[in-house]
Amino acid sequence: MKNTYFTPGPAELYPTFYQHLQRALDEQIGSISHRSQRFRDIYQFADEQLRVLLSIPKSHGIFFTGSASEVWERIILNCVEHESFHLVNGSFSQKFYDYANALQKHAHLQEKPFGEGFDAADIDVPEYAELVCLTHNETSSGVQMRTSEIHKLKRKYPKKLFCVDIVSSAPYPDLDFNLIDSAFFSVQKAFGMPAGLGVWISNQSCLEKAEYLLQNDALTIGAHHTLPTLWKHYKTFETPATPNVLYIYLLGKIAEDFNRIGIDTIRKQTEEKARMLYKFLETSADYEPFVKQERHRSQTVVVANTTKPSPDVIANAKAANMIVGSGYGKLKESQIRIANFPAVSIEQTELLIDQLKK
Amino acid sequence: MKNTYFTPGPAELYPTFYQHLQRALDEQIGSISHRSQRFRDIYQFADEQLRVLLSIPKSHGIFFTGSASEVWERIILNCVEHESFHLVNGSFSQKFYDYANALQKHAHLQEKPFGEGFDAADIDVPEYAELVCLTHNETSSGVQMRTSEIHKLKRKYPKKLFCVDIVSSAPYPDLDFNLIDSAFFSVQKAFGMPAGLGVWISNQSCLEKAEYLLQNDALTIGAHHTLPTLWKHYKTFETPATPNVLYIYLLGKIAEDFNRIGIDTIRKQTEEKARMLYKFLETSADYEPFVKQERHRSQTVVVANTTKPSPDVIANAKAANMIVGSGYGKLKESQIRIANFPAVSIEQTELLIDQLKK
Fold first, then answer.
1. Which of A73, A242, A250, A254 is the mutation pick for testing B, counting most B CBs within 10 A?
2. Of A23, A108, A187, B235, which is least surrounded by CB within 10 A?
3. CA distance B8 to chain A (A)
4. Do B31 and A25 touch (CB under 8 A)?
5. Which residues of A touch B220 (CB under 8 A)?
6. pLDDT by residue (tens digit) across B5-47?
7. How far apart (Å, rounded) are the C-alpha atoms in residues A340 and A338?
8. Cβ-contact B6, B273 below 8 angstroms
């Protein structure tokens, strides 16, 4: 019997994944040239579907990388000469900051304890920070930053470039890309695909910054997947190097499925399932929501403290063919993480709640 | 009717690919955690199979990236403080050199015209070059450098790190990894998989160089997929970031299939098919081998000049469900490129020759 994966990535595959994969195999998408019109059509289709789904304006290009982690590096290399600024409240926002340090940038940070979230009013962006790095959804702790707060912060600092990690939440967050310069995600979370493809959305301002840095012989913007090379090839829906053609095809098809349902419906379903999960956690004697502030609770990765050892909870769920994520790092034994992605239905969420009640 | 892809990557999928993919879907490999024992077993299996196939000693680790192009960047960042040296005789060896320049290294090059190859006796490695960058098989021109010549060169310069691009030839070249410090390939060529995974083989000497450079605050070895982080996670068969789990599984399975056939047999079959193709080109009035020196002719990517416009040759082959590659760059109209990978049988090669004769 197949398991249902409630893990926060890799996660449950989207139900239509299999039929799209079969079609791709029938059409031999795995063998076509990335310099062919067939590939350009596939890229353009994925671009158009993502553009509709996430309301991405023409000012932004959509590029493909090997992973979202790769984009942490690319955005820092391409958009920071000296200083970046990071909001850090978990393991993944920490890694974004660590990448900036490893790239020898002067990385500023503002921290909150694990499980707490940021609001615009909390934040002072240092004067010389060129890029503000935010994490919409901290996968490790289940904390979100509301998009309204992200937008408010950008309005306060309109001249700084803003980059938002939406790895474990896209397409849920209704980011206003007229404000946000760059965002990125990977496909093995809410898009319900296997891992192996990162998606980087970036605007002309980021490109201009990269082109400015390119003139400076004292630094490098990298050699692979630089914004200028990505953008140059993007104009004809090509890529600088051979990309994951098959996954780009599948991403376009799943984004099309999402558009058929409608992004509003997907967001409402996400909120409905999150409401069910948090309500259960709040009323249960065996669990409680880890994130105290309701406005900071993630809609896509729900984290719970368990009174019983969480490995037992996870083992029991597994025996019922439901795979639940463990707590992150040192919270492995006392927390569970439940992904709330579109691949999992309201009915499956009810079954999980019934299981957790046992 | 399905096409047979004779293109030099993306290429024909290996015949067993489909059954391995079905099994992976049945086992929900696309959803498993990259921090699970199941994933560690998959990584270890791929590692063991590649180790047998390519005779990789314990001194070398095997790492996964998004693509082989990414490795061009990683090896330069991790193993070059000031100077690299490149043999350039085509578009891909040129790109390796371009990457080093983009990373602000002092990149030396020795060039040969498109279609000509290198022997060890031709080559003077500059005194201060730290890394010697060679391309075993230049995919753009169909030129190879014999492994015996690569080994001879390393013996002449034993203290320099040697890195060999085997993107469009692995597992054919019998590289001696007791001499060669690093090599890399991508899976969409001779391994007969869709694009989306790079494989980087690298030894302790490369790691030590990266660790040495890491102490130097005046430069960066990058943040993503650095050798020290790859190696640290590799010790427990994990990866620093979420990798393409599904493709690592498939690569292990195809490498196992190759090992069942035996690498000697695969090499002999490759040579037999190459002999058939070159013999046909030499005796035909309509074609000739582009590479004049027999010892420099690639065994895995056969390039031919055509007397008729090559787009017509390609269109006629396509009408017979055989997809042949075009010439590279400005030779698009006057050459064809024929991949000779394990996914294509002797019988299919005969059918292609019959088609080209028409």
1. A242
2. B235
3. 9
4. no
5. 102-104
6. 999 989 999 999 999 999 999 999 999 999 999 999 999 999 9
7. 6
8. no
